[in-house]
């Protein structure tokens, strides 16, 4: 490529746009559907239910310990699809790039999108690139959409939680949120923190085969964190949720940083964790499957669904007190994902 | 971390709660002066461990909540001046001023930056030599030394584009003012930990001598607060008031002389207006003549006009323990965290916010 930064012409639809697609996107996302370069991707379908999801990624900084906006955008949409019990198959990627963006950075981001897609077993089959004048966007925004198929008659959704179920969390909280915050301009504490960005569809598939009928709810606690997702489940199901503070997993370095900045890890973002509401009878089996996988090595039961306090999340604190865990209002960390 | 874990020990906390319960045979009203205490009490569910006869009342110790409306308006005025960057701690962003908030001004394109320390604000000034960087100086004796240090650093570097709008307040004069208010019944004070690290136990001596009311300095871990409350209930039930320090690992009688020196060098005491308490003599700080160049009020000739708090907001009553948040007729209706009317519902240390978040 002649240029080393993005110029407005890269989004013009002309030669430079073509060059960007040919030289960067196509080799990275290499697959049969995309390489036909038709106006839309034609994909083989099967009869049944389809899961469809979209998400936009505007994270700042673009690169952070544990990943970058590219793998985050792939993993985020893969996880959203997986949380309905579907097998994610195809993604689209829309890029909005600010004029002046370094092509080298774009290449690195596209490469990690491709790697994340490969790792998750999905294909990026459609895409779009727009370039906007300097100042009209902050460096790079990515939107990903995706589809997947639901096998059989699985019914996994937030309304299914019922009293007696166990609440499982697949690993430590707040790794992504605190990594982003720590990387922000003017705030680089020497803390050993790393984003947990990862695709969870493989983990979900193994959980489903271990307990096909026992998994009632799956959610990935991204923005708003574990507390917000639990509140959503309590509201949707009309059940109460009780969690135990002493069983909430948080890495030492992360909890130290939270403490320092006055941030509650319950509300900080995660990008490679899931919450599962599971029939008590299957909880041990699901926990065992989770723990066998590196992505679920720190999985644990953090609480239970109860008939008390319907629609509310209540925490038993480490010292034996009780308090409400509310939804997050007005973001602790603006724009972290 | 290990260090604090012992102060979160369930057994220790349960035993302290048991001692408090056995001591608390009559109605007792203890004010936790500091907003961080309020939040910590709710966050750890401490109230649920204590007997009903013991009321924990939140005091005027949330720096955001006691900031006068006129001072908030002054920050907005500064943010609206051309070529100016207003640097602020995040908790001020959403506090309603007259007809606006810093968050709204930022959305309108004003350059308002959230910083995590005064050193970040200094760095902003160095990086933007052609613009004025003004730091919104809000807080108690805890933040005042770092802000004083930033002024000394700016002075030493000859930075001509850094200044502080000083709206600092002092805790001991507020205690004094509380005692003079009618309708405030308090049997003991849980005194702030962080503030006391700086000013030391000595700072409360004359207040205690005058009023002979039980006073205990406490830290913020659950066992710290329970130890403080336990000492207070003991003093109240035996009618033997004292000024005690239950936070000996961080607070000394003298406090931190270095921090005091920096503060004294840059600031002098001044009258200050408190939300809910009105004007209190010598309860605030102003920047000394010697550093006038770094005083945003003087540099930009800002003369804050008295401003009325939102109609119906009972923040003043809440801050002085004369009513509880649910007693405010706007609580949960016109005033919620998503759409706050008063600062007590916005600040992370605000009493109304803590009630809403943890206690509904
Ligand atoms: S509920 Fe709102 S209006 Fe009422 S005292 Fe609290 S902050 Fe002020």
Care to give the gist of this entry?
Chain A has 337 residues and is α+β, with helices and mostly antiparallel strands. Chain A is built from 9 helices and 13 strands. In chain A, α6 runs antiparallel to α9.
Number of helices of chain A: 9
Secondary-structure element order of chain A, N to C: HHEEEHEHEEEHHEHEHEHEEE
- Which CATH top level class of the largest domain in chain A fits? Alpha Beta
Approximate shape of chain A: globular
Q: Given the helix and strand composition of chain A, which structural class is it?
A: alpha+beta
What is the radius of gyration of chain A? 21 Å
Stretches with pLDDT under 50, minimum 5 residues of chain B = none
In DSSP terms (H or I, runs of 4 or more residues), the helix count of chain B works out at 16
Task: Describe what this molecule looks like in 3D.
- Chain A: It comes from Desulfosalsimonas propionicica.
- Chain A: Residues 38-149 form the PurM-like N-terminal domain.
- Chain A: This is Hydrogenase expression/formation protein HypE.
- The complex is a heterodimer of chains A (337) and B (360).
- By secondary structure, chain A is of the alpha+beta class.
- Chain A has two domains: 5-150, PurM-like, N-terminal domain (60s Ribosomal Protein L30, Chain: A, 2-Layer Sandwich), CATH 3.30.1330; 165-325, PurM-like C-terminal domain (Phosphoribosyl-aminoimidazole Synthetase, Chain A, domain 2, Alpha-Beta Complex).
- Chain A is built from nine helices and 13 strands.
- Chain A has helices at 15-29, 32-35, 69-82, 103-120, 175-183, 201-210, 225-237, 252-261, 283-292; strands at 49-57, 63-64, 67-68, 86-98, 123-132, 140-150, 166-169, 215-219, 240-244, 275-278, 300-306, 313-316, 322-324.
- In chain A, the strands form three sheets. A seven-stranded mixed sheet of chain A has the order 8-10-7-11-9-12-13. A four-stranded mixed sheet of chain A has the order 1-6-4-5.
- In chain A, helix 4 (103-120) links the parallel strand 4 and strand 5 (123-132).
- In chain A, helix 1 runs parallel beside helix 4, helix 3 packs parallel to helix 4 and helix 6 packs antiparallel against helix 9 (283-292).
- The longest helix of chain A is centred in the N-terminal third of the chain and has 18 residues, at 103-120.
- Chain B has 360 residues and is α/β, with parallel strands linked by helices.
- Chain B folds into two domains: 1-313, HypD, alpha/beta domain 2 (Rossmann fold), CATH 3.40.50; 314-354, no CATH class.
- In chain B, 39% of the residues lie in helices and 18% in strands.
- Chain B is built from 16 helices and eleven strands.
- In chain B, helix 6 (102-107) links the parallel strand 3 and strand 4.
- Chain B is globular and about 65 Å long.
- Chain B starts with a helix and ends with a helix.
- The A-B interface holds A 186-187, 246, 252, 255-256, 261-262, 264, 315-324, 326, 329-330, 334 and B 1, 8-10, 13-14, 42-49, 94, 114-116, 120, 123, 222-223, 336-338, 348, 356-360.
- The complex binds iron/sulfur cluster.
- Iron/sulfur cluster is lined by residues 313-315, 318, 325, 328, 330-331, 335, 341-342, 344-345, 352 of chain B.
- Iron/sulfur cluster (SF4) is lined by residues 313-315, 318, 325, 328, 330-331, 335, 341-342, 344-345, 352 of chain B.
